[in-house]
Amino acid sequence: MKTALVCGAGGFIGSHLVKRLKREGFWVRGVDLKFPGFAETEADDFIVADLRDQSVVERVIDRSFDEIYQLAADMGGAGYIFTGEHDADIMHNSATINLNVADRAYKRNNKRIFYSSSACMYPAYNQEDPENPNCVESSAYPAAPDSEYGWEKLFSERLFLAYNRNYGMVNRVARYHNIFGPEGTWQGGKEKAPAAICRKVALAANNGEIEIWGDGAQTRSFLFIDECIEGTIRLTRSNFEGPVNIGSEEMVTINQLVDIVADIAGKKIHKNHIPGPTGVRGRNSDNRLIEEKLGWAPGATLRAGLEKTYAWIEAQIRSNSAGNKSAA
């Protein structure tokens, strides 16, 4: 039986990845600071522990796994990353995890680590035009990410690829572009735009109003979780080390994103634009390289993913409301 380690298995992407690996017949160990928040883990062995601690990493990576997926990071949506209030924690926590995992994996003769980088590492100067952002993989340098989160991701990309060059590993690096779907964070400050908007629309009355940070003209692409997992596994098992984008090329403004969710909900929603962290003006996945190297690229529509995500978040809200009423 093949074995896999998923670091960050309590998170949104990690918990979905564990499910996929189990369906493929893997024995899976998961590790995170917490269990998944919205469903029981399917990992065969789940360790609740802090990967910033070297002794923990030694206990977790106690053998040679067929595949290691390093998704663990200190991260969140714009309300967490772009305020500047968490920069030191984001850089220290994530870099420490990556340094520990890369070195321990090598010393236990693990050859293949997938590392999840982010489109946040792309230069801000290439993302000023919301209609024509440049996120081709080769545009990463000269480096100028728009956040310390992006700088740490860029450093860690280079770390895992340096282990390839110096130690003969076959690590793989992907740059995720705004992954969303059911069982993801949808409230509390770390949620990303699709989940936040689904929550706001679900809570709003028909013909009601929701708040949007900025003018809403900033553009993004959003990738449904199932496509993310497919691309992740394909890259991990390929002969291409990356870095490569894993994202959708269906770019929309935040205002358009609101309109799609409102239409799914069957509501007319008014937008109240307020000051708030927005990140770069434009970002979109460029999928030419992944198509060339893997013969595959994401193809699901944004609306299809939002329909599933909205239904799940709406159900969460109803469940929470029912629970509050019962407690009262």
Walk me through this protein's architecture.
The protein is of the alpha/beta class and 328 residues long. The chain folds into two domains: 3-179 and 224-246, NAD(P)-binding Rossmann-like Domain (Rossmann fold); 181-221 and 250-284 and 300-318, UDP-galactose 4-epimerase, domain 1, CATH 3.90.25. The chain is built from ten helices and 13 strands. It has helices spanning 12-23, 54-60, 78-81, 87-107, 148-167, 193-203, 225-236, 254-265, 288-294, 302-327; strands at residues 3-7, 27-32, 45-48, 67-70, 113-118, 172-176, 179-180, 208-213, 219-220, 223-224, 244-246, 252-253, 269-274. A seven-stranded parallel sheet has the order 3-2-1-4-5-6-11, with helices on both faces. Strand 1, helix 1 and strand 2 form a beta-alpha-beta unit.
Alpha-carbon Rg, integer: 19 Å
The major beta sheet can be summarized as: 7 strands, parallel
Residues in helices, as a percent range: 40-55%
Shape verdict: globular
The largest beta-sheet arranges its strands as 3-2-1-4-5-6-11
- Total domain units: 2
- Judged by helices, strands and strand pairing, the structural class is alpha/beta
Tally of strands: 13
- The CATH superfamily title of the largest domain: NAD(P)-binding Rossmann-like Domain
CATH architecture of the largest domain: 3-Layer(aba) Sandwich
Low-pLDDT residue spans: none
Secondary-structure element string: EHEEHEHHEHEEHEEEHEEHEHH
Ends: how far apart? 50 Å
Estimate the strand proportion: 15-25%
User: What is the CATH C-level name of the largest domain?
Assistant: Alpha Beta
